[in-house]
Amino acid sequence: MEVTRLAIPLILSRLGEMTVSLFYFSFIGHFIISSLSHASFAWALTSFLTVVGIGFFSTSLMKVAGSTDLNAESVELDLVISFRLAFLYGAIIVSAIFVYSISESRSLTDNGNLEGLKLLLILSLSIPALYLQITIFNFFNAIKIAKYELIYTWLFNATLASACAILIATNTNTNAIHFISTYVGLRCFFVVLAFCFFDRKIHKHILKFRHSQSIPTKAYVNYFISSLPMALCFGGESLLFLMLSFISKSLGDASLSAYQASLHFLSVVYMISIGVGNATGIVAARHFKLKKFYSLSTTYIQGIKLGAFILTPFLLACFFFNEYISIIYTSDVPTRKLIEGNLLISIPFLVFEYIYVVTRMTLRSMGDFWIPTLFTISLLNILGMILSVGLLSFYNYSVHSIFVALVLCSFFLMSFLLWRLGSLLRQLNHQLVERQLPYDRA
């Protein structure tokens, strides 16, 4: 029950973030169509950087979740470093994109490309806000108060939707720069509100919390090293799907459209995996800290069962209602047929993906970061690309081969991570029994 209570708001929060992208693309795609390609590229890059940030700061989530004393100096130190690095990394990214935009704009004469650089620069201003948002709600989620992020996310969605409705109702001659500036402004405004809320609530959990304190350089280095594997893991997965989009593009416009549409639907389902995976990891982290390995195993099984229950309707939809799903994305018949085939192929992928996400988060709750990351990069990025190219060359030169490759590499990743978790649990239980034997004999 503990996993379920935590997973539901986390899933709804993740779906809320997916809704933000829906508003973004729907508004530009219907009312500023000429800027859609540039706006899509800007969103793709900032999304990739956001995903890397989610991975980087997720280590802090596991540390706080596993802590038995929130007033311990290490928890406060970790939180302060998270805030400082969130702002620092966000500022570095904005500065880098600013320098890139200035250097590129000097050699460009096409107004369209110049607009693309402006859109990218403006949208990048949201990255520091997103990193701070991740840091704030990682803490609240880790202490199992997930309702704060849920309220925040959907309140932001309601405000953004209202802004879009006002722009439409007033028939304002809005261009992409105005719309994206509005989005970024709302992001910054909301994160300021979230930070003020955090500042009011934090002292109930960490009595003497101070933002301004001297922190040794070694602490920053240790934080970076411990956060690196998850950043690489999340970034690697995101990069894989970006690379597969380029392969899909080489197959033709219909294949690229079908790939992107299918991937969007799978991404919605992926939010369930992330929500339940985080909930399972948060609960399991405390059991691991207290050396309650049986409770940890029980928590993991509860997470898997919860996923089986929630995923079943989506799997049935992919099988029985794939035609209705495809028509949501396009009315083009050839593209729809490709989407329908992709969804059928992806049914086992969704199962394997869910299991490996929950298993990987459970391993991370046990402090096992590098091995799952290396497995993920090796079996998704490297093996996934090899399988995709191989199947396209020797099996079927269509976008379906890409999804068959995803099924295969996700199966191998799931199998390796299950083996890793079972091996670690057996080892830990054996060590626990060995420690208890001298006391039993005494």
TrEMBL record:
* One Pfam family hit: MatE
What Gene Ontology terms describe where this protein resides (cellular component)? plasma membrane
- Would the keyword Transmembrane helix be found if you checked this record's keyword annotation? yes
**Gene Ontology MF annotations:** antiporter activity; xenobiotic transmembrane transporter activity
Any transmembrane segments, and where? 12-33, 39-58, 79-100, 120-140, 152-170, 176-198, 219-243, 263-285, 306-329, 341-357, 369-395, 401-419
Which superkingdom? Bacteria
What keywords appear on the UniProt entry? Membrane, Transmembrane, Transmembrane helix, Transport
Record protein name field: MATE family efflux transporter
Name the source organism.
Pseudomonas mandelii
